[in-house]
Amino acid sequence: MLKTLMNEVGNNKDAAVRTPIFTALEVFMEVLIPYVTAMIIDKGITAGNLQAVALYGGLMIVMAFLSLFFGFQAGKNAAKAATGFSANVRDHMYRKIQSYSFSNIDKYSTAGLVTRMTTDVTNLQNAFQMIIRIAVRPPLMLVTSVIMCFVISPDLSTIFMIAIFVLGFILISIMVNAMAIFNQVFKKYDALNASVQENVSAIRVVKAFVREDFENKKFTDAAGNLKNMFVRAEGLLAFNNPAMMLVVYGCIISLSWFGAQHVVAGSITTGNLTSMFSYVMSILMSLMMLSMVFVMISMSIASAERIVEVLNEEPDLKNPENPIETVENGEIVFDNVRFAYRVGTGESVLKDIDLTIKSGETIGILGPTGSGKSTFVSLISRLYDATEGRVLVGGVDVRDYDMAALREKVSVVLQNNVLFSGTILDNLRWGKLDATEEECMEACRMACADEFIEKMPDKYNTVITQGGTNVSGGQRQRLCIARALLKSPKILVLDDSTSAVDTATDAKIKEAFAKKIPGTTKIIISQRISSIEHADRILVLYRGKINGFDTPARLLETNALYQDIYNTQVKGGGDFDNTGGKS
Asked: How far apart, in Å, do the first and last CA atoms of the chain sit?
C-alpha cells in the first residue's frame, strides 16, 4: 500500500524533501532560544551586564526571525507537496476508473467511488502533510528538548521523564479506542453520499410521489449515524487536553519544588531552571501533537486502504499484445456463447447462443424482461467478455481487437440515455470530436431530432443541462441516436432507445436507417412489435436462450412466444412479461 501511494508523489518529491529539512531547522532555532534566554538571565540580568543582555538579546531576535523563515518555508513546501500529492491521487483514480470494464465498476457503488475521490483523498492529503511536517516536528522537538534538559540537569530531568511515560500511556489508550471508531466512519460516509445522490438524481420522482418526508428521514438517519460515530470518537479525544494539563501542571509543580532546592543548593542557576520550564512544555506539547498525528494517520489508513483498492484494481478487459485496429465489416457471429456476471456464483444470463448476423442486416430482438437482451448486445462491443465461447465481429474475435477501435465501429445507444452539460453540438460531437455542423445536422435529420432542435431559440447551440433534464425523454433518445450515428459505425445497436418516441417518428427513424446507412448492421432491441416488424430477422430470447431466430413472417407462423407477443400488442389480450410462451 505504501509503495503504491508513494508513487503518487510524482513531481512533488522536491517539496516533500524540503519540508522536513526546513522543519528541522525551525525546531533547531526554537530549541536554542530558551538556552539563549538562560544566558540573558545568568550572564546579563543577574550579573548586571547590559552588554551581554544586548548581545544575547540580538542573537535571540535573529534566531526568532530564522525560525519564522524556516517555518514559513516548511509550511509552503508542505502545502505544495500535499496538494500536489492529492491531485495526483485523484487524477490516477479517475483515469483508473475510466479504464474499468463494467464488471469492475459493478464491484463499487457510485457513492462509494465519490467518497473515495473526495473525503478519503482529503484525509490522505491531511495525513501526508502531517507526516512530512508535523510528524517531523514533535519527535525532533521531543528529542532535542530532552537532550537540552539532561545537559542542564540530569537529576531534574527524571521528573519529566516520568511525566512522559504517564502521558504517553494515557494518550495511547485514548488513541487506540478512537482509531477503532474512525475505521468505521467512512462506511457511514458512503451511506450518506448514496442518500444524497439518489435523492437529487430522482428528485422528480420523489416529488411526484410526495416522498420528501421519507427521503428527509432517510438522510437524517444517515447523517445521524455519522454524527454519532464522530461524537464517540471526538468524545474520547476530548480527554487528551485534560490529561495533558494534569501532567503538565504536575510536572511544573514538581520541577518548581525540586528546582528551587537545586537553586538554593547552587547546583543549577535561575536561568537554567527557567529554560528547563520551556523545554518541559515543549516536550509535553510534542507528545500531544504526536497523539493527534497518530489519530490523523489512523483515520487516513482506512482511507488509504479504500483508495489503494481502487488503484490496484486491474481491469478485467485488456487489449491483446498486438491488437487489430480495423473492423472490416459488420458481420456478427456468436459461437456457442455462455455468459454469467459472476462466474461460478450464479446462473448464466446467456446460454448456448449460436447465430450469425450478416453485415448490413437489420435484426430485431424481443424477449421478456430479464431474458438477456441487453447482455447480448453488450458482448458485441466487448463491454463484457463471454464466459464461454466466442463473439466475432467482422470475422475476428472481439478479444483480438483494440477495444477503442472496436467501440468506434460498434455504436451503442443504451437503455439509459445520458446527455452531458453543454450545447447540443457539444453532446453530438461525443460521437465525432471534429464533426462539422453540417455533419451534426445530417445525423439529427436521420434521428428525426432536427424537428425539435429547429424550434429552439438557439437551435444547435441550445444549452443542455446536466443529465439532459431540459429536454423530454423522446428528445433525449433522438439526440443520443444522432450522436451514435456520427461515429459512422459498422454496427449500430439501439437498446430499447426509441421507447419514448412515438410510433410515427420511430418509423421515420427506421426508414432513414434503411436509406442512409444500408451497409451498417442494425440491431434493435424493442418491446414494440411495430419497431422491429420490418427487420430482416428477429431474435427471440427467453430465459437466456434463443427461442427463435427468423424472419418476422416465419416467426409468426412457427414461434409460439413471438405469436403471443404479436397477439398481445396487435390484438390486445395480456401482459407481455406474463405471456411466458412455449419453447
From this structure: 53
